[in-house]
Q: What sequence folds into this?
C-alpha cells in the first residue's frame, strides 16, 4: 500500500512539473467574435533574407493545417470570401545562457588566482503569433502568442495541433 502511494505521488509530481507552453491571448471587445462564420488563412511569405533562412517551411505548413482544423472544429468554415483573415508568424529568439564551472581557486605570488570556466550556450526559443483580422477593417480582433522550446516534438503534426488547439481555445 505504501509503495503504491509513493509511486502515485512520484508520478503526480512529474506530471505537475511537466512544462506546457504558456499562451497569452487578447481580444478587442468592440467586435463580436460570434459573428464570424468563415476564415481565410494568409500564411507568411518566406524570403531569402538571412533572418529567415532558419525558418522551417514544413513547420509553417503544419501550423497552417493545425489552425484550419482547430477553427473548423469550432464551427467556422474556410472560404476565399471569408469575413475573418487569419495571419500567423513564426520566429526564433536566440538567447545566450551562461554557466560557470567553479574550479579551483587560490593565491599565486600574493595575487588571487581564479580558474573558473565559463560556458556560453545558445538556446533557440521559437515563438508563434496568431492574429485574427476583420476582413472589412483589417483590425486585429483576436490575438494569441506563445513561446515554445524547439524540440523534435515540433516535427510531429499532433504536437503542433495540440499547441494550436490550446492557443485557439479562448476564441
A:
Amino acid at each position: 500500500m505504501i509503495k503504491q502511494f509513493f509511486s502515485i505521488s512520484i508520478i503526480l509530481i512529474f506530471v505537475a512539473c511537466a512544462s506546457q507552453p504558456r499562451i497569452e491571448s487578447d481580444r478587442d471587445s468592440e467586435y463580436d467574435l460570434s459573428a464570424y462564420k468563415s476564415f481565410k488563412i494568409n500564411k507568411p511569405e518566406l524570403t531569402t533574407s538571412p533572418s529567415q533562412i532558419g525558418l522551417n517551411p514544413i513547420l509553417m505548413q503544419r501550423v497552417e493545417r493545425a489552425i484550419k482544423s482547430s477553427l473548423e472544429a469550432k464551427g467556422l468554415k474556410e472560404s476565399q470570401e471569408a469575413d475573418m483573415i487569419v495571419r500567423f508568424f513564426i520566429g526564433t529568439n536566440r538567447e545566450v545562457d551562461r554557466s560557470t564551472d567553479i574550479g579551483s581557486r587560490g593565491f599565486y605570488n600574493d595575487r588571487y588566482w581564479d580558474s573558473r570556466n565559463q560556458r556560453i550556450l545558445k538556446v533557440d526559443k521559437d515563438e508563434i503569433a496568431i492574429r485574427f483580422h476583420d476582413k472589412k477593417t483589417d483590425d486585429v480582433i483576436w490575438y494569441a502568442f506563445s513561446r515554445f522550446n524547439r524540440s523534435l516534438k515540433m516535427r510531429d503534426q499532433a504536437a503542433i495541433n495540440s499547441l494550436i488547439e490550446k492557443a485557439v481555445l479562448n476564441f
User: Anything to note?
Assistant: The first strand starts at residue 23 and ends at 27. The domain at 24-168 is CATH 3.30.160.670 (Double Stranded RNA Binding Domain).
